[in-house]
Predict the structure.
Amino acid sequence: MTDTATELPYTIHTTDDGTPQEGVWQPVGTDDALKNGFDSWYGVTLCGIGPEDEPPVEFIALGHDTDRRALVAAANRWMRTYWEWPNLLGDTSRAACTALRPPVNAHVVLLRATAAAGAWEDTWQAVTVPADTPGAVPVTVLDLKSALDNPVRLHAQVEDLQARIGAWGQRPPGWWPSAGRRSSGT
């Protein structure tokens, strides 16, 4: 595979003989997006993006008119559905979403792999581009990286866990003494 420079602000992957392995894809409505890895919850059509086989580090939602609360709720639903997290950031504390950056409006070109890409056929990638780029799609980006790495959020998780343990009377629910321990009663 080689990268073929274009006059546009992105490259197209090609085979060694120059056959394009990907082309520009513009979702034609929600149904087309759903067929290609997006989901739609709470009126938001979105997809998690990031390294393969890892939880997404950011989400993109189609359009610029996305309500922030609906976007966070849809991303939360994505994480619960596909990664079985109890909530968006994997914790139950009230401070879970305080470290989220505000969503950002951007434009991306979605490059979908063709049959020439072999095993990668029908996968796609998003490349951030200027708004006037041919094929640019308006999206709203929700970045999780800063929130996932935020030490204040991690500290809040520890405090929440300590409070829960305290509420359990210093013993987690279902805790039983070991079989070798004897009661001091008569």
About this structure: The CA atoms of residues 80 and 86 lie 6 Å apart. The chain has a mean pLDDT of 77. Residues 151-167 form the longest helix (17 residues). Helices lie at 29-35, 68-83, 145-148, 151-167.
